[in-house]
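**User:**
Everyone, produce one record:

**Assistant:**
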Amino acid sequence: MSAELDALLAVMVRLRAPDGCPWDREQTLASLAPYTLEEAYEVVDAIESGDLGALRDELGDLLLQVVFQAQIAAEAGAFDFAAVAAGIRTKLLRRHPHLFAHAGDANDATEATEATNATDAADAGTGAAWTAAQQTVAWESIKAAERRAAAAPSEGRLSQLDGIARSLPALLRADKLSKRAARIGFDFHRAGEAADKVAEELAEVREAAGSNPESAPSPEVCEEVGDLLFAAVNLARKLGVDPEAALRAANGKFERRFRGMEALAAARGETLEGLDLVAQERLWQEMKRRE
């Protein structure tokens, strides 16, 4: 295993050498960012398809992004791949205080204590089993302690929302924002209340759209649609539904049915675009019945 990783790192060094690959040499951390996102999504696609061979390949592509960016950072004198691996190993030890005794610095001890207190456990470092719920509470508590420790004094008071990347897909970021707020009690008590909020926001979209006869949406309409989407994500969270996964599934269902509509129309010597809405709706309902 170590030999394969060493060989991969050596290949990247060679690609970035002065006489290496011109394309690889001209890449920067910024230019690689879109590829990193793309590879991460392709890993998810492979998982959802159940194709383990594809998953192996996609994980390799994602690992390449880590190796590539670590090499660029090493050339700048910032850090290397070993530092990346050491950092995540240390983080895993620190965030599982019930499994690993902390022999690190005072911050480690403080974070372990906070996690232990958060779960009412007295077994840090003993190897005692925690439930998944206890581990989730501990993980989030330790992350919060890490954010406090890393913040500069000049930055002032920290927010519960610190550390949620702005570059996340909007749906995923909305879910994370509402989860952070819920941790301190800013949340609906029941899913029904969240559903009522969705209905309220939908009514506001209708009202804003009714006062906006122009073909291009007004800023008010855009704002109200955003509020509606955020409320829908909040409802999904209260129902225990992953909104990103749910929307991916809905996208897949729509695509499957729409392609089926196109196939049905073609089998009848027609084109979908040549049919009126009523005929298109009949095809849609036929595809629903076939599922």
About this structure: The mean pLDDT is 86. The first helix runs from residue 2 to 15.
